[in-house]
Amino acid sequence: MIVLTIAMVCGLYICSFCIKQISTRTNVGFSNFQVIKKPCEAPNIEPWEKVYVHYPKPKTYSRDECECNPVRYFAILSTQRSGSGWFETLLNSHTNISSNGEIFSVKVRRSNISTIVETLDKIYNLDWLTSASKNECTAAVGLKWMLNQGLMQHHEEIVEYFNSKGVSAIFLFRRNLLRRMISILANSYDQNAKLLNGTHKSHVHSSHEAEILARYKPTVNLTLLIPNLRQVEEMVAKALESFKSTRHIILYYEDIIKNRSKLIEVQDFLKVPQMDLKSRQVKIHKGSLSQRVENWDDIEKALKGTPYESFLHEDYKI
Ligand SMILES: *[C@@H]1O[C@H](CO)[C@@H](O)[C@H](O)[C@H]1NC(C)=O
Ligand SMILES: *[C@@H]1O[C@H](CO)[C@@H](O)[C@H](O)[C@H]1NC(C)=O
Ligand SMILES: *[C@@H]1O[C@H](CO)[C@@H](O)[C@H](O)[C@H]1NC(C)=O
Ligand SMILES: *[C@@H]1O[C@H](CO)[C@@H](O)[C@H](O)[C@H]1NC(C)=O
Ligand SMILES: *[C@@H]1O[C@H](CO)[C@@H](O)[C@H](O)[C@H]1NC(C)=O
Questions:
Q1: What are the tens digits of pLDDT across the range 131-184?
Q2: What CATH number is associated with residue 266?
Q3: Among the atoms of ligand 1, which is closest to the Cα of residue 113?
Q4: Domains identified in the chain, total number
Q5: What is the domain extent for residue 308?
Q6: Which element (helix H / strand E) includes 311?
Q7: Do 90 and 275 form a contact (C-beta atoms < 8 A)?
Q8: Of 52, 122, 137, 307, which is least packed with CB atoms within 10 Å of its CB?
Q9: Residue 71 falls within a domain, yes or no?
């Protein structure tokens, strides 16, 4: 009788234990079934392109009907006063491009490689919300990054990040470094002078404002002229060399001004549908370079016979 009772109790115990296990297992299976959705079907792309195609899942919102639209990552790598502000407004006029501005102009974000990676991860996961973000239907997301904003300082790790995460680089430089230098001098003068009714503007939206800013003619320091030009040239060459293993395109401000079909090349590079891109920005320093500076004759003398002589002549009419 005792043996029989023990056997019965044991049997009941094992039985209830099994039922518990079965029920938990089915529960887990059921909730899994609800969470897993059909993965997005990869578009018809070449195998080498796979690493550049992403389906981010932002933490703060849902991509809704565009959930399965592929997203590409990019970064505009440039130098100050090279037309990158203008170029970015052109890109952002596209319905499917979100370029989030000069995010690393804020020092804490570039204090070390971990803060840089953290910031990039957030941008590329579409969780960085600025006026530029198109959110759910973004097909290309990126930022504008100056070479001197931690980019060259941490270039090895950043190249590794770009190659492993599939980030494409858009280099944007200016061919005429003398024009760029004059633009820098005028812009830094305005930081103190604040010519537009007491506010400093680096970019303007009306020809009236552009005219006021262009009235100021800087004087170029002749001692620094050639060393400065050489330094910028070397910095650009070093950047191109460091990032040559990434997928990239090299653009020059002057070429885009002369031929807007360059912008089609950029859209093809980002694999977004082709659109007519527009910017409301107005160019500040128009016309001949000799009218833009105080000491043109001295500059001309200093650059004659140097590798930079062509900067004196290369002008464009708009
Ligand atoms: C990186 O910088 C951030 C912010 O300045 C700091 O909190 C963090 O400890 C730093 N990390 C490393 C690994 O130095
Ligand atoms: C571009 O955005 C529109 C709506 O804003 C969307 O319908 C379209 O699918 C997007 N295109 C791509 C390639 O993501
Ligand atoms: C400065 O302010 C005056 C009056 O408020 C306005 O008419 C003028 O257009 C402004 N100028 C610029 C350059 O913004
Ligand atoms: C040019 O720059 C050098 C070095 O910064 C400085 O010593 C010199 O005074 C400057 N010359 C003029 C005319 O401002
Ligand atoms: C503009 O650039 C495109 C290629 O980007 C080229 O095919 C075309 O000939 C250029 N047009 C002019 C006027 O230079």
A1: 777 777 899 999 999 999 999 999 999 999 999 999 999 999 999 999 999 999
A2: 3.40.50
A3: 1
A4: 1
A5: 48-313
A6: helix 310-313
A7: no
A8: 307
A9: yes
